[in-house]
Amino acid sequence: MRKLRRAALALGAVAVAAGALTACGGDADSAGGTKAEDGTVTLDWEMWAGSEDEKAQLDHLAQMVTDANPKIKVNLRTAPFNDYFTKLQTEFATGEEACLVSMQSLRLAGYTDLLEPLGEHVPADGFDPASTAALNLGGKQLAMPFDLASMLVYYNKDAFKAAGLDEPKAGWTIADFETAAKKLTTGGKSGFGMSFADLHTLSLLLSYNDAAPVTDDVKLQFDEQKMIDAVTWYAGLAKDDVGSVPASAADGGWGETQFVNGNAMMAVDGSWNIGSNISSAKFDVGVAPLPAGVGGSKTYVANSGFGVSKSCGYKDEAYQALQILTGPEAAQYLTDQGRSFPARTEQQPAFKEFLVAQDPDNAEAVSAAVDSITASLSTGVPLFTTKNWDEVTKNMARYLIEVYTGASTPADALAAIQQQGARNQ
Amino acid sequence: MATTPLLSTAAPGRGKPPRRKRPGRRAEQWSAFGFAGPSVVGLGLFTLFPVAMAVVMSLFHWPMLGEPSFLGLDNFKYLFGEDPNFGVALRNTFIFTGLYVPLNVIVALGLAFWINNSRFAQLWRVLFFIPAITPMVANAVIWKMLLQPDGTFAYYLESLFGISAPNFLADGRTALLSVVAMSVWQGFGYNLIVFSAAINEMPSNVLEAAQLDGATGLRKFWSVQLPLISPAMFFATTMTLITSMQVFTQPYILTAGGPGNSTETLVMNVYQAGFQSRDLGLAASGAWILFAIILLITALQFVGQKKWVHYEH
Q1: A394 in Cβ contact with B272 (< 8 Å)
Q2: Is B42 on the interface with A (CB under 8 A)?
Q3: What are phi and psi of A287, to 5 degrees?
């Protein structure tokens, strides 16, 4: 009996010890890095990566940090993009966040209290102003950018030629766009691939009549009259199959997929897809800024960058690492790898060179496309979003598709998005 | 705790056997402890603790990032009162279950009897089982292609019957039915294997006796064969019902809960509360309601089985 009791006690002690161990593990990680006896600091860096190639690029960047500062090492932790933000918020919730955190401008609002304002610690010289603005919320620079993206109209050059239409160029208007979409709708193919994704849809609404879904102080205003007018116009494109309506609320990338497949002759897509759209389409691809509405051509810009978590125990080292990760050499390296349109102005021309070298047969198209990015950026507006933006985009998908199919009115759908989103914004 | 009476009955002076058995029993207790220990600790840490934690969380406003605050039953009140989606999710889940479970069992049972008389029984079983073991996401993606405008179904409806197909997954009237259709196709293979095994195990003497008594066709099926495989049917319906109440992947991939909220299910509602609205307390409340519903229905099934399930004694 006594032995049994002792055994039970021992088991209890083991359980408590195990609990303590896991608790200790949490505490040690919350610093977001570790310090060795010789003073070398290893910083954890959380970033998305979808392939071994991407991981190799990021490892190269991590090595650049150590080459510049031998006392700083960077421990890369990755997740695929679709899981990245779920992982990140779980880490923040359990105190396991990294010192260096990768952040997308659209998700920034959810992390304002968790990221350290970079202020004077990291100089912003040499960046495209639109790129730093997109990661600056409430006057606080919460992350430093490595890329920059705007939304563009991709069009099927062959179809424009066959229809006898002039190709779109900077300065073309909403009326030009509508005329082209109608004329290009023939033989079961649509003139335009519709979308309900945030950047794709909201950018075109913005260009149409300056409709903005979010106020300057980042509150939802989906039910505002301009939004209703703009959505009414956009949904009107679905009439007579001029706009190809997504097959379901799960088809986030409908418009651009239909475009590349040759089923829609125009679509709005991000500048990050220039290279892949031109090379994977079986027709000549043209790119133009969004058509101009009442206030001229406009687009939302979005980008990604790196920030420092507030809980980081080695902030000075993190600031130093950040300057390398978003510095000119790292930007040059990523641009040479064709990663994306760089946030640093000096490296932007190299992106065009890279794309042209990748696709010499389409040199002219690629070159013109990159010029369109530069043109669109001058009127680009950062899209600041609410904390619960995932919920908002989910509801945009579910309710806008009902407007496109005629099952609901723009006012009702936008009211539903507003009402459901307002609770947790 | 079971050791106490054993030890106390072994009073001293009552003869040798109890005394001699003691060390052996102790050794057995030790090994029992050793074998059961890891799973008891595992169950406690990874099942019982999270379950208890979910109860606690359901009473709090528990944001994923930030400090929790006590709410009492407000989460439950919100779900049943203000939440525009929870009631619909509940309704959708019941409609899904109400259609999916009977269809699944009827298809699986029908095919199991048919296959049983086929020369290629094994081949059919493998073929029908393939969807059940293929990743659900892959199945759903294929069905999305079949169902989309200009997809395979739309093409055949148009060319064979001259009917112009609706946009199956974007139309609120057909979206949930499409999800049910895909789910039945995906899920009946498992029950088919269960029923096939039960049909093979039907005692031949009972069947022969029935035949001698003149039972044929529907009469034989209804009064002899069905009762004989009723334990398998009970198992299949119980398990299918539980999994169908938890349906998530099919609507998530096919329709993302839309259009509107016409295909949002309970688990999807829980997922969205937790990972999109980042309200873990609300998610825990939803999960508890789902658990209670499943528990109730399963209990009813167990009570009801006495009337229709026949076990051989």
Answers
A1: yes
A2: no
A3: -135, 135
The ipTM (two decimal places) reads 0.81
Interchain CB distance below 8 Å, A394 and B272? yes
- Phi/psi at A152 (5° precision): -135, 160
In whole angstroms, give the CA distance from residue B255 to residue B179: 8
Mutate to test the interface with B, among A86, A248, A257 (most CBs of B within 10 A): A248
**Could you state, in order of their start, the residue ranges of all structural domains in chain A?**
32-148+303-354, 151-301+386-422
Rounded distance between C-alpha atoms, residue A184 and residue A169, angstroms: 17
Is A21 within 8 Å of chain B by CB? no
DSSP states of A355-399: HHHH-GGGHHHHHHHHHHHHHHHTTEEE----TTHHHHHHHHHHH
Architecture of domain B75-308: Orthogonal Bundle (1.10)
A412 touches chain B (CB under 8 A): no
Angle at A47 between CA A86 and CA A337, to 5 degrees: 135
For residue A14, what pLDDT band results from cuts at 50, 70 and 90? very low
Residues 6+ positions from A407 with CB-CB distance below 8 Å? B171, B172, B259, B260
Cβ–Cβ below 8 Å for B277 and A248: no
| Confidence at residue A4, expressed as pLDDT on a 0 to 100 scale | 42
Indicate yes or no: CB of B256 within 8 angstroms of CB of A397: yes
* DSSP H/E element including A48: strand A41-48
Q: Write phi, then psi, for A243 (nearest 5 degrees).
A: -105, 130
Check A89 against B30: CB less than 8 A apart.
no
Give dist(CA A396, CA B82) in Å, integer.
Answer: 20
β-strands A144-145, A304-308 pairing: antiparallel
Average pLDDT (A312-317) is 94
Q: For the segment A68-97, what is each residue's pLDDT rounded down to a tens digit?
A: 999 999 999 999 887 898 899 889 988 899
For the record, the structure tokens of A204 come out as 């075109």
- Class of CATH domain A151-301+386-422: alpha beta
- pLDDT confidence of residue A169: 84
Position A371 confidence tier, pLDDT thresholds 50, 70, 90: confident
Share of chain A above pLDDT 70, in %: 93
Supply φ then ψ for residue A127, to 5 degrees.
-95, 150
What pLDDT was estimated at residue B219?
87
pLDDT digits (tens, 9 = 90+) for A254-297: 999 999 999 999 999 998 888 788 888 999 999 888 999 998 89
Show the tokens assigned to A221. Answer: 């205003």
Looking at residue B93, its pLDDT comes to 97
B255 burial (CB, 10 Å; 0-12 / 13-18 / 19+) is: buried
Record: contact B278-A89, CB cut-off 8 A? yes
As a 3-state breakdown, chain A gives helix, strand, coil percent values, each rounded to 5, of 50, 20, 30
Return the CATH class of domain A32-148+303-354: alpha beta
A122 Cα to chain B: minimum distance (Å)? 26
